[in-house]
Amino acid sequence: MRKTVCLFCLLIFSFSALAADQVSLIIINSPKGINWKSPWGLTVSTINNSLLKFKNKRVFGISHVFINVKCDSLGKDIYRGMTSATDTEERELLLKKKYGLGLMFHGYAGKLEKEDIILRDLTPYSGNDRIAKLTTIISPEACERMLTYVDDYEARGFGKMYSGLQADPLKGGGSSCSAFGVSFLEVAGLLEKEYFTDWREHLYIPKCFIGGPLTGNKVPVTRLLFRPGAKWSNKEPNIELYAWNPEKMHAWVGRIYDAAQKGKYAKNLVDIKHVGKTKEIIFDKTSYPTPTGNYWKFDDSKMASAQN
User: Fold this and answer.
1) What one-character DSSP code corresponds to residue 212?
2) Above 90 in pLDDT, residue 13?
3) Rounded distance, CA 168 to CA 158, Å?
4) DSSP state, 230?
């Protein structure tokens, strides 16, 4: 009898999930992993991944995050992502203008990716363990608020700005791919405290490694490559950085999935799925209250006058 009831509940959930409003973070790991343990590790691992070339598919060399907002209540299903408009700007700043780790704070020309590009680039990775998904079932009000936000984001021109890792997209001025994805959760009131601790890097970056306008320094890449013993440090002049790390997000999904397989379900977790080696965890937060009012963290009147 108990098995019958459990099966019935599972069928009810499965049916409702098919017709539910939901948001998914689609998280893609880098091919070889990004090493955040030291300035040298970050530099070397980033270069090694960025130099890779794959035949007929996108590399996602420094990891990536896409967002899928599926509002069945409104008949809308969108995919969005933020990336740089070209790869040449970063190489020029690193090699010619000697920005060093100042690249982490730089604002680039950006591109707001949509369904045509995203679905094309994800298809070759179907079932690959480099992909992980965090899906949250949400209320129609939360879903509509996300759609309003992303339309507003694009209308204001923020999609043309691919900003540094420190950027908060809700403050205006663009975003990195991971911060952009997380901003949807914030707009809808779905951020959890553990995300801030488990998904982010907290670094003190020595100013001797930061070139460009932040310091006025020129930092050749060789300074980073020839200092394998250098550390993140607040014992010398530095710039503090909090950055959303897709690879930490990916690892977190894996931990929640693996724990659920052993019967340890996280709060609000209702299901886990997999396609090949791609793991997906599904939370139900339809009961979460949806914020109302302005989601921007800037004075709209001042922003408008600055843009004019």
Assistant:
1) S
2) no
3) 11
4) -
Express each pLDDT in 120-171 by its tens digit: 999 999 999 999 999 999 999 999 999 999 999 999 999 999 999 999 999 9
Q: Cα–Cα distance between 68 and 79 in angstroms, integer?
A: 4
What φ, ψ does residue 171 adopt, rounded to 5°? -95, 0
**For 172-182, what is the mean pLDDT?**
95
Measured distance CA(185)–CA(138) in Å, rounded: 10
The closest of 64, 65, 74, 69 to 135, measured between CA atoms, is 69
- Written as one letter, the residue type at 11 is L
Contact call for residues 148 and 216 (beta carbons, < 8 A): no
Question: What angle in degrees, to the nearest 10, is found between the helix axes of 140-155 and 177-187?
Answer: 140
What pTM was estimated for this model as a whole? 0.91
CB 301 within 8 A of CB 154: no
Show the tokens assigned to 288: 């979460």
- Secondary structure of residue 115 in the 3-state scheme: helix
For 269, list phi and psi in degrees, rounded to 5. -75, 125
Euclidean distance between CA atoms 308 and 306, whole angstroms: 5
H-only helix segments in the chain: 2-18, 39-50, 88-95, 115-122, 140-155, 177-187, 193-198, 221-225, 246-261, 300-307
Q: What are phi and psi of 22, to 5 degrees?
A: -155, 160
Q: What is the CA radius of gyration of the chain?
A: 20
Per-residue tokens: 99: 């920005």
Which helix (DSSP H) or strand (DSSP E) does residue 135 occupy? strand 131-137
List Cα–Cα distances, 220 to 63, 206, 214, 240, in angstroms. 24, 15, 15, 21
Strand 131-137 versus strand 278-284 pairing type: parallel
Token pair belonging to 14: 């499965």
What DSSP element (H or E) covers 137? strand 131-137
The whole-angstrom separation of Cα 25 and Cα 198 is 15
Give the separation between CA 152 and CA 304, rounded to whole angstroms: 13
pLDDT band per the 50, 70, 90 thresholds, residue 93: very high
Where on the phi/psi map is residue 85: left (φ > 0), alpha (ψ -120 to 50), or beta?
alpha
